[in-house]
Write a structure and sequence with these properties.
This protein is of the alpha+beta class. Helix 7 packs antiparallel against helix 8 and helix 20 packs across helix 25 (746-764). The longest helix has 32 residues, at 99-130. It is globular. Mean pLDDT is 89; it is low at 1-10 and 768-786.
Amino acid sequence: MAEAHQAVAFQFTITPEGIDLQLSHQALRQVYLSGLRSWKKRVTRLKNNVITGVYPASPSSWLFVVIAILATMYTRSDPSMGLIAKIQEHLPVSDSLSVQCRTVVSAVLFSTLLWFSLIFTMRLCLKQLLSYHGWMFEQHGKVSNTTKIWAAMVRIFSGRQPLLYSYQGSLPNLPVPAVKDTVKRYLESARLLMSDAEYERMTTLAKEFESSLGNRLQWYLKLKAMWASNYVSDWWEEYVYLRGRGPLMVNSNYYGMDFLYVTPTPIQAARAGNTLHACLLYRRKLNREEIKPSRVPVLNVPLCAAQCERIFNTTRIPGEETDSLIHWQDSEYVAVFHRGRYFRLWLYHAGRMLSPREIEHQIQHILDDPSPPVPGEAKLAALTAGDRIPWAQARKEFFSSGVNKRSLDCIEKAAFFVALDDDEQGMMGDDPAGNLDRYAKSLLHGKCYDRWFDKSFTVVLYKNGKNGLNAEHSWADAPIMAHVWEYVMTTDCFQLGYTEEGHCKGDVASSLPPPTRLTWDIPAECQERIERSLAVAQTLADDVDFHVLPIQDFGKGAIKKCKISPDAFIQIALQLAYYRNRGSFTLTYEASMTRLFREGRTETVRSCTSESCTFVRALEGGESKEVCRHLFRTAAEKHQHLYRMAMTGGGIDRHLFCLYIVSKYLGEESPFLKEVLSETWRLSTSQTPLQQVELFDFVNHPDYTTCGGGFGPVADDGYGVSYIIIGENMINLHISCKHSCPQTDSHKFGADIKKALVDLLELMSPEKQDPSRAEQNHLKNSKKDL
């Protein structure tokens, strides 16, 4: 076949006359261009490492220091106070060098040492400046003189045009809170959820822990904090994610959606062409470190970018005791799944990235391929959807050698995974709300065998042109993947675009080799194990009750008029909705980031507080508006304080988690830690922030609205709620629970949340809201032909 000949650089035949050597110049050219691309990447990586290594200075500043020192010496003064002479005495150079040359060499060495000392000092100063978090606790809109001076100093020491990883060496380490402070905050958060007897017993356990075992565990934790970049992140990744033996699907992986009201093209292959090309553009910017470092708005405080390193070319490998994350430096192809078959699709040709039109052509080749899957191939990915131990055993037994290993390696070493679905999804048809829910479920778990749940992320492309993603959670948190997806969606529509017929723009090179079909030899015993994993995954998927609720009645704009934090507003609304739904309060998890610190990930905000419960009881008990408003503001301020504490290293749960891990290493039992770590989070919540607002234009293109993403329920009898605040007038909610629990219903809880939001807005607004116009606009948009 033609592609087979193109893959061989030379052929030789042994004859009686000798060896007949035939070179394929085209293949050799491909090898040369591919190698050239690899070397360019290495040079770029080396250059960026140098620039990042000397940050906040620049490489050119070394030359400035050298010239300044030499110029000073030319004036017959000694800026080194005798150090240059000392260096000259011990300089291991030949006597053939003149005294002047040795002096110059000594001056250059001194200048280099001085330059490195200045870099170290500047980095240390910046690290100390970034350790200050008082700005976060100031009243919104009022900046103190201290903070203004601090912000000016940060700008001075931050240098110019930092690369993505420039701040990594200057970020402070996550501090270890005092045991007594963490225990005190825990008891405060637990009081409202316990009876008097339960609270008294827990207080006794806490005091015993604090006065005895806690101090010993804390000593080891402080020792780790002095040695490691982050005392939480590695243990969190290993024990919370990689050692989990249950299915990743639903329990750990999460999803991201396409535009809510718009589908840029109805052609599946064309949408794939732009989407995959946009992913490659993002990866190129990532490799060159051209992505701007993420920052906290307003004061532009930098955030840790360590999680970005494993976005692409990363796979989770199953193990019997614990999984492992493997990351490769580069990968020039993606693995594609379609109708039970697996393909390798090269994304580079002749040393260049394929254009969107060329990727569309290659994807269409896969869609048109009539070949059937071999036995066991169609549902192979169900192994990644089921329990981890059976998958680890099957991988070791059936995929450790031969053709199966080669094909599995191809999937695991791919840049990412692509799933081409035959279904149509989106907010469409006669039942747009129901179809939106089914769209979410499809992205979360699909058919349980058409997503490779171990890959860092899977891009899903539907028959009608809709897309989405499913992401594995252990390598990074949702905001990292959301940043990628925002770029991909906006680049797809606003930068790359489509022709009038809906195809990608550009031409197709005639020499493109077609995608390669992966081959398998799956025995009957392995097929049985695949079916067992599929049964486990299917039971889990069928139990998921999902509801996506776009709210256009109001958004951040109306909430800010009430002078309340939008996040605090929504969190208190969730408490009100849960109380109305279940008649009680529950332990609530809200994810907060700790990326102000090096290698920081998340911390828990226990958003069910005594202040929020007091407000909810007062509102439901018929107290006056003035009383309720006062209690609401008190609850909102308390929530904001807890969120800020979590962001600045003063959280509760990560500290207790690490103390528990240390106790296990030491073989010690702590009744207090055991009870804390076994608590059930029946309400798990997370906000997906819109990070690159400048990429969207909600004024001129209001229909190009991202819908955010969601995750499965954490507890069997609880809810998972993800929300994203879009512009000034929209909030999207993703609500999950389980059908098997008679007490939970995602649609009912969604209605309760919406009513709670409206009630709180009416309570806090000076003028009564009239949502009818926004509701009519929502219905109008829902009927658009997508």
